[in-house]
Amino acid sequence: MGQDGIDNVVVAFKSGSANKVASHFDSTIELTLLQKSNSYSKSQAEMILKDFFVLNSVKDFLVIHKGENSGSQYCIGTLVTKNADYRTTIFMKHKGTQQLIQEIRLELR
Fold first, then answer.
1. Which of 14, 36, 63, 99 qualifies as a FRET site for 5, CA 20 to 30 Å off?
2. Nearest residue to 80 (alpha-carbon basis) of 103, 102, 63
3. Domain 4-108 class?
4. Could you give phi then psi for residue 66, rounded to 5 degrees?
């Protein structure tokens, strides 16, 4: 199993497009923005991420580490925005024929 799923998500984060990131969401995802964590539907999570990207325009996404564990993929990186850098953790799980995002954590570095 390749890294395609996680690599596509990294590209989506680099573009700063909530829509592109959300295309990899499972039907519900765990989203942690700074200290606020909750489980959201795909559409709710996309709106929250869109608002975040509007306030923090994305300059880059730097991958620190990525790996696989029992069919799940994860990536730890730094989301570089015009306001601050965020330590970003993305967890994906294999569902059917796709890797889907289960959880995203964005924490101030």
1. 36
2. 63
3. alpha beta
4. -145, 155
